[in-house]
Amino acid sequence: MTLQRLDDGFDRWDELLELILASFAYMNGLIDPPSSALSLTPQSLREKARGEIGYIAFDDDQLAGCIFCRPEPDNLYIGKLAILPSEQGKGIGRRLLAVGEATARERGLDVLRLETRIELTGNHATFASWGFLKTAENRHAGFDRTTSIEMRKILT
């Protein structure tokens, strides 16, 4: 498996969108409100990669996973960490997260932050096993209940 920074030379935006949608498909009908991934387009992914720091994981020539990182004043926000379902369990998520950690350190940031939906308890457990701790509960606009949790990882 190889990792590559998403840049203007990348031209497989349709495939990247398919990867994200396949990775997040199990959430459909499970989370409310629906995932923001459903509103992505190849063009919006291209713009996201220009405004954030994205990496793609390849298994030979197949897109296997991705991560988007956004520097914030006191942390690096991790978003759209997605692994193709057929590639899950192979350590790709950990490798992509390691790139996120390196990206944070390069920018002088010692905290990773992410958000995950309240219903996705399996994700909570996975992120906890990777060193993240729950730090907040949040709700989407228009909801009177918790819809997501924030988790942070302190980098040592």
Describe this structure in words.
This protein has 156 residues and is α+β, with helices and mostly antiparallel strands. The protein contains 4 helices and 7 strands; from the N terminus they run βααβββαβαββ. The chain has helices spanning 13-24, 42-51, 92-106, 121-129; strands at residues 2-5, 53-59, 62-72, 75-83, 111-117, 133-138, 148-154. Strands 1-2-3-4-5-7-6 form a 7-stranded mixed sheet, sandwiched between helices. Helix 1 (13-24) crosses helix 2 (42-51). The longest helix has 15 residues, at 92-106. It is globular, with a radius of gyration of 15 Å. It starts with a strand and ends with a strand.
Number of strands: 7
Mean pLDDT over the full residue set: 95
Structural class by helix and strand composition: alpha+beta
Principal-axis shape equals globular
Largest sheet: 7 strands, mixed
Q: Nearest-angstrom radius of gyration?
A: 15 Å
**N-to-C series of helices and strands:** EHHEEEHEHEE
Q: How would you summarize this macromolecular structure in one to three sentences?
A:
This protein has four helices and seven strands, in the order E-H-H-E-E-E-H-E-H-E-E. It is an alpha+beta fold and 156 residues long.
Write out key terms for the chains shown:
156 residues; alpha+beta; 7-stranded mixed β-sheet; 7 strands; 33% strand; globular
